[in-house]
Write a structure and sequence with these properties.
456 residues; 18 strands; flavoprotein; alpha+beta; 25% helix; Uridine Diphospho-n-acetylenolpyruvylglucosamine Reductase, domain 3; Uridine Diphospho-n-acetylenolpyruvylglucosamine Reductase, domain 2; 3 domains
């Protein structure tokens, strides 16, 4: 193993952990640091491929002794910072998934992805509160709140966590639940990676085996009519129904259905837990807006949930930005279309509005640090940082944020805007807990809480 001259000797660390210890130039280093977002070029000083909570704890203790910050990644969906001079702990090897159908729970390791949980739960007529793509890691998604197709019925994924195992900045492995380390239990569920490295998580599964849903693709010429119809229709839906609408600039990919290749389209997404007949009645007003390019809505097993959003499964370079909206009046839709509609010349590949409300807005049985419950809609925009339009993506993201600023109320943790998204009366509590458990700021997280007072 090669070692950089600026680094302390990693021999003791390599002897203490079961997984690989890599430094720049070692075989496998580049693969270990590459995540889903290929635009996030990370350059940590050391990578530890953890295989257990003990490996994570050893790596944290070594980093502290050697005055290095610590970062963590599983799938790399949330990478933004370059992580220079840090110890990056990769948890992708810790991907165990165990389902207890009687208790309706799942217990997963830090590297588990939602697809594995969905597949393990489905034979028992159960489903997790995953997001729009099953390729995303369970832990990072959930500690950021976790908003998905079932959230209007059941709430954020973080609301249904029963127990956590976490390694804190002192290198200790801690059991965390409502009785043990209750402050951490409140803060980690919504506080993302600011409190430590979650090595195991246990959470509820929902009695959901199927749904009526999918997506309707409509032509660019109907974008204005579709968005205005959607903004008045969506809030009338019951909690058992979820919806989003996205402006898409689709690539000429042979994997896409022929009517969609290389086209600008408006994608209305819909899921309903009631019967297909009930779902058809609910969706009828949106189906009547315009002749679709493709209607892919129908009865589906829950395991087919990826078909609703059709997020790209392969890694790609991108930049994104999110916001929550307090309301969505006609003026807000017009402002959005003015900068991102089919005639605006925007380089953004996806601009999505998602209906919130329902159980998302209700406080969970055990309170947590999740933000965004008071919002009516979320907005997410993504630009691909490749090709001739890549240079215009940062400006387009800023322009969209400025256009909807009059209606913006904040941001969700997993889709942040500038600065950190934590706000409101719980922010001081979160900061106090973070500073108490990590006074030296050991964790160089990809979305760090901006400390407003000195360590104490």
């Amino acid at each position: 193993m090669s070692t950089a001259s600026s680094l302390p000797d990693t021999t003791a660390l390599a002897a203490a952990v079961a997984g690989p210890v890599l430094v720049p130039g070692d075989p496998g280093f580049a693969e270990e640091v590459t995540g889903y977002n290929l635009a996030a070029v990370t350059a940590p000083a050391v990578v530890v491929g953890a295989t257990s909570a003990d490996d994570v704890a050893e790596a944290v203790r070594w980093a502290v002794v050697n005055d290095r910050k610590v970062a963590v990644q599983a799938t790399g969906h949330g990478l933004y910072a370059d992580l220079g001079d840090t110890v990056l702990i990769s948890t992708r090897r810790m991907d165990t998934v165990n389902v207890d159908p009687d208790a309706r729970t799942a217990r997963v390791g830090a590297g588990a992805r939602w697809r594995a949980v969905i597949d393990a739960a489905a034979p028992h007529g159960l489903a997790p509160l995953n997001g729009s793509s099953s390729t995303v890691g369970v832990v990072g998604y959930t500690t950021g709140g976790g908003l998905g197709p079932l959230s209007r019925r059941f709430g954020f994924a973080a609301d249904h966590v029963r127990r956590l195992e976490i390694v804190t900045a002192d290198g200790q492995v801690r059991e965390v639940d409502p009785e043990r380390n209750a402050d951490l239990f409140w803060a980690v569920r919504g506080g993302k990676g600011n409190l430590g490295i979650v090595t195991e998580m246990e959470f509820d599964l929902m009695p959901v085996a199927r749904f009526y849903g999918g997506g309707i693709f409509l032509p660019a010429a109907a974008a204005r009519e579709v968005l205005h119809a959607w903004r008045t229709w969506a809030p009338t839906l019951p909690d058992d129904a979820s919806t989003s609408v996205a402006l898409l600039q689709l690539p000429p990919d042979p994997a896409l259905p022929e009517p969609l290749r290389g086209r600008y389209a408006v994608h209305v997404r819909f899921t309903h837990l009631g019967t297909a007949a009930e779902g058809e009645v609910l969706l009828a007003p949106m189906r009547a807006v315009a002749e679709p390019l493709l209607d892919a809505v129908g009865e589906m097993p829950y395991a087919a949930i990826d078909a609703v959003h059709m997020d790209p499964p392969q890694p790609l370079p991108f930049a994104d930005r999110g916001a929550t909206l307090a309301s969505l009046p006609a003026e807000a839709v017009d402002a959005l279309l003015g900068v991102s509609g089919p005639e605006a010349g925007s380089p953004l590949a996806i601009v999505e509005l998602r209906l919130l409300g329902g159980a998302i807005a209700r406080a969970p049985q055990v309170p947590n640090a999740v933000v965004g419950r008071d919002a009516a809609f979320s907005l997410v925009a993504i630009g691909v940082l490749a090709g001739p339009s890549a240079g215009g993506v940062p400006g387009a993201l800023k322009g969209l944020a400025a256009a909807v600023e009059p209606w913006t109320s904040g941001a969700l943790v997993n889709f942040p805007a500038d600065g950190d998204p934590w706000n409101g009366p719980d922010r001081e509590r979160l900061e106090e807990i973070v500073v108490r458990h990590d006074p030296a700021g050991t964790f160089a997280t990809n979305l760090a809480l901006a400390r407003r007072s000195p360590a104490r």
